[in-house]
């Protein structure tokens, strides 16, 4: 089911485009990661133990990660929320005809409060949100007691560069910074870890030294095919003290 005609909310949970009801995402991040199958399988593997039966995916983009979430056995219903007019059209088409899925054009604040979820997932989304603390607070309102919040965000402010600006990122996070943000909103951290240590150098070279503004599909696929499987095999056994991204899982405790 697709909910049409919902305009993005003009509140603090929106991005810098909050005054534009016809916001279109202009970054190339979604295209670059579209074919990153090993990357997404690795990520959903990390999330799977914490996913509930009803999942909200905020900033679902073109629905790439949505398809991976729908393959998780315990996920019975998926609500995919996306504000971009251009990306929502592709998300809508992708989910059309899939049972127990709902696509909502808008922001997290547009999710009906009476339809609480067991889990909220935001993959490469929080860095696009100007008021990230308010987003984390709002997430708590739509998740049931003992439900989970799952975030995947870019790490290391020191490697913020032209790629981040081109992808419309406001920031990159440190692990202590993200931990404080989540705990200050009343969540209890279950897991917070760096991921993809091998991605640090390529991102630094591309974004800080070469000042690039995009990643080609060929480059992304090569990294996904040859580097991600090795990195995942190592990091699934050894906790890294640093990484290109951070994965965080938190739980909403009753009371």
What does this structure look like?
The protein is an alpha/beta fold and 255 residues long. The protein has one domain: Vaccinia Virus protein VP39 (Rossmann fold, 3-Layer(aba) Sandwich). Helix content is 34%, strand content 20%. It has 10 helices and 8 strands. The chain has helices at 29-33, 37-47, 64-70, 85-95, 132-141, 162-166, 175-184, 200-209, 217-226, 228-235, and strands at residues 2-3, 54-58, 77-82, 101-105, 117-123, 143-154, 188-195, 245-251. It has an 8-stranded mixed β-sheet, sandwiched between helices. Strand 3, helix 4 and strand 4 form a beta-alpha-beta unit. The relative contact order is 0.17. Mean pLDDT is 88; it is low at 1-20.
Alpha-beta content class:
alpha/beta
Q: What is the radius of gyration?
A: 17 Å
| Number of discrete helical segments | 10
* The level-1 CATH class: Alpha Beta
**What's the end-to-end separation, in Å?**
33 Å
Instruction: Kindly identify the CATH topology.
Output: Rossmann fold
Which second-level CATH architecture applies? 3-Layer(aba) Sandwich
Mean pLDDT: 88
Shape, per Cα inertia axes: globular
The total count of strands amounts to 8
What is the share of helical residues?
Answer: 25-40%
The count of domains is 1
CATH superfamily: Vaccinia Virus protein VP39
Read across the widest sheet, the strand sequence of neighbours is 1-4-3-2-5-6-8-7
Low-pLDDT ranges: 1-20
Q: Largest sheet, described in full?
A: 8 strands, mixed
Strand content: 15-25%
Helix/strand order, N-terminal first: EHHEHEHEEHEHHEHHHE
């Amino acid at each position: 089911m697709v909910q049409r005609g919902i305009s993005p909310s003009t509140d603090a949970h929106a991005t810098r485009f909050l005054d534009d009801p016809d916001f279109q995402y202009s970054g190339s991040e979604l295209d670059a990661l579209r074919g990153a199958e090993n990357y997404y399988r690795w990520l959903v593997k990390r999330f799977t133990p914490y996913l509930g039966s009803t999942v909200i995916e905020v900033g679902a983009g073109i629905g790439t990660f949505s398809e991976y979430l729908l393959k998780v056995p315990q996920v019975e219903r998926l609500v995919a929320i996306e504000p971009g007019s251009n990306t929502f059209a592709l998300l809508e088409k992708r989910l059309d005809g899939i049972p127990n899925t709902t696509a909502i054009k808008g922001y997290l604040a547009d999710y009906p409060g009476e339809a609480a979820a067991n889990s909220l997932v935001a993959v490469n989304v929080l860095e696009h949100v100007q008021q990230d603390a308010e987003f984390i607070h709002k997430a708590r309102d739509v998740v049931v007691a003992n439900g989970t919040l799952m975030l995947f965000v870019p790490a290391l402010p020191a490697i913020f560069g032209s790629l981040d600006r081109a992808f419309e990122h406001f920031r990159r996070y440190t692990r202590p910074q993200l931990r404080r943000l989540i705990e200050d909103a009343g969540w209890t951290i279950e897991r917070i870890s760096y991921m993809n240590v091998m991605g640090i150098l390529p991102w630094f070279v591309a974004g800080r030294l070469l000042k690039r503004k995009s990643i080609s599909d060929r480059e992304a696929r090569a990294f996904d095919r040859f580097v991600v499987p090795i990195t995942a095999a190592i990091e699934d056994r050894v906790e890294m003290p640093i990484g290109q991204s951070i994965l965080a899982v938190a739980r909403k405790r009753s009371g």
